[in-house]
Structure formats: C-alpha cells, structure tokens
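User: Can you predict the 3D structure for this chain?
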Amino acid sequence: MRYRFMSGGAIGLFVALAGVIYWKGGASARGPVHPQSNASEQIEALRSELNEVKRNSAVSLVLAQAASQRSLTPVASTQVAPVASAPAPTATEQTEEDNAATARRVEIEQAESLDRKFAAEPIDSEWASRASEDAKRALLSEVSGDTSIKRVDCRSTWCRIETFHESLDSYKAFTQGSLLGHQRQLWNGDVTATVRDESESGVTAVTFITREGHHMPMPDGVQAAASAEGAPR
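Assistant: Here is the predicted structure, written as structure tokens:
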C-alpha cells in the first residue's frame, strides 16, 4: 500500500510540473518575453510555483494515506454475550427428585385410602361424641398460635383430626409435642399424620388416632403388600 501511495504522489508531482511547463510554453507561444523582464523575478516566480506544486502533492499524499487508514481500520463487531442457562441436574439429583416425588405420591394415596376406610366405618355415637370433645380439649391446651384445630370427627374405633399450621416447622412441632410427646394430653392410640396441602399461606394436615385397644387400619396398597410378604412360599 505504501508503494502505491508514493507512486500516486510522484504522478501528481509529474502532472503538476507538466502543467507548469505547458503554461510556460503557452506563454512563450503567445509572444516573446519582453527583453526588459527581470530574470531574477522570473526565477523567483518559478520557484514559488514549484513550491506550491510540492505542497499540493504533499497534501494529496496525506489525504490518500488517511483514506487508506480508514479503509484498513477494522470495525469493532458487537458481540452479544451468551445467556447463562441453569445447569442441568445431574443423574444423582434427578434420581433423588424422582424418588421424593414417588414417595410423596404414595403417601397421599395411602392417606386417601385411610379417608375412605374412615368414611365407611359406622359411628359409635356415644364414644364418638365423647372422643371428639376430649381430642379438641387436649389439643387446644397444647397448640401454640401458629397452629389451629380445624375439625375433629370420630367413628367407632378412630378419629380424624384436621389441623392448619403457618409453616412446616410448626406442623413438625405439633406432631412431636401434641401427637407423639410423652406429656401429650391425647389418649394412647395408634397415630398417623400426613401433610395434605402445602402453600405460601401454610400447611394443612390430617391426623388419625385410634381408640384405645384398637389398631390403625392399613391402607389398601400396604395391606396387599403385607399379605403378599406373609404368604407361604
């Protein structure tokens, strides 16, 4: 590129000089120089013209170089940074999530099976009425402000208790203290509790407790599995 810039400047200088010579020749053609003309003035004028030609050639060269620099300057490309995506779960994490989801589904199915068995049992009116009041009184004496007793229903051999808790921690404290604690006020019976719903507002749970001297019925799926295990081989 530098070789082409220098050649262009030289060509420009040559053309300029040719123009001066042509102009001088043309002046001679128009008529002879007056014999009275001062030779030194003509020489000085010629030098000025040559200097002007050099300046014009230098300016042309600078402009050509600047244009070349602009054409050769790389244009910065705009690159969009890739959006970081959430890492995919590992095989172990996926397995743990699947196992937890399966366990939760089985837990709900078993709890719903107990609901059906409870609804199908006849009601012992005398015991059910007394047991419901005893359960309400015992639980209300122990629960804190973040737990409320929503409903207590009793049949012939067990009771169903629905509670609401402000958080999962308050539900755990309820089960450990009011249902399983050594100082609990409820009578001694088999107990099972299940979280039925969990949301931002709180936790809804259902507890079953059997009448003293009776055992908790087994959910349908668990009962079938237990029967299969106990069968002779």
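The first strand starts at residue 147 and ends at 154. The helical segments are 2-30, 39-72, 91-120, 125-140, 168-179, 220-230.
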